[in-house]
Specification:
Blueprint: H1 34-39, E1 47-48, E2 60-63, E3 67-75, E4 78-83, E5 86-91
Parallel strand pairs: 1-2
Antiparallel strand pairs: 2-3, 3-4, 4-5
């Protein structure tokens, strides 16, 4: 004998939670704008990019192909740099 359910099963999410919300996710940083963060800086403030150089978050760099940029993320031997055409993932020297 089978029993029919009177209510459909829920997925366990509350009705207030929206799709894509993750309570345990890291808070997102505000998007950085290239024009505000980089374009107005003097040329002397930029370090030339080299794979053998170590960079820190917030450092200004100049790349031979992509131009001026701002280091927005550093993890191990990888960095993300915000250039005018968008964010690029590049390598750098680890500590």
């Amino acid at each position: 004998m089978s029993m029919k359910r009177s209510k459909p099963r829920s997925s366990g999410k509350s009705q207030d939670a929206q799709e894509g919300d993750d309570f345990f996710a890291k808070p997102k940083e505000a998007e950085k704008n290239w024009e505000i963060e980089v374009a107005s800086k003097p040329d002397e403030a930029f370090s030339p990019y080299a794979l053998t150089t170590r960079f820190d978050k917030g450092q200004l760099v100049t790349h031979p192909k992509f131009g001026k940029g701002l280091v927005t993320f550093v993890e191990g031997t990888r960095i993300e740099i915000l250039f005018q055409e968008g964010t690029k993932k590049l390598g750098h020297a680890a500590t």
